[in-house]
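pasting for the record
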Amino acid sequence: MFGRVVGNSGLAVLDLIASVPTRNYGGVFSELPVVQATETTLTFIFVGKVERVSVSVTSFERVEQGFRINWSTSPAATPVSIERCSDLVGAAWEVISTGETDGTLTDASPPASKAFYRAVIP
């Protein structure tokens, strides 16, 4: 397989393909990914379209209700997860919302000290 991985979302596609069982049919087909393979029937995996999906955080702002993060995605309305952590060195990212498509989220209960936010495509 040949391709160019762009961002973490491309790695998820490759991980999915890599998790499919392979069969050895000799020659260049020594590791052919197949699903529902029997001795008489083969179902091959074809990736017809790989679409580049991206997310960009556009602004952060403290508001009366908490802390607001704004983002844009391409293509528009791509679902994202918003994550938060208290320390960029060693702290785990906590998912505070998932499936967001409207480009804005207000964290109504941000930590009292500091917080770091990111928008990711699951």
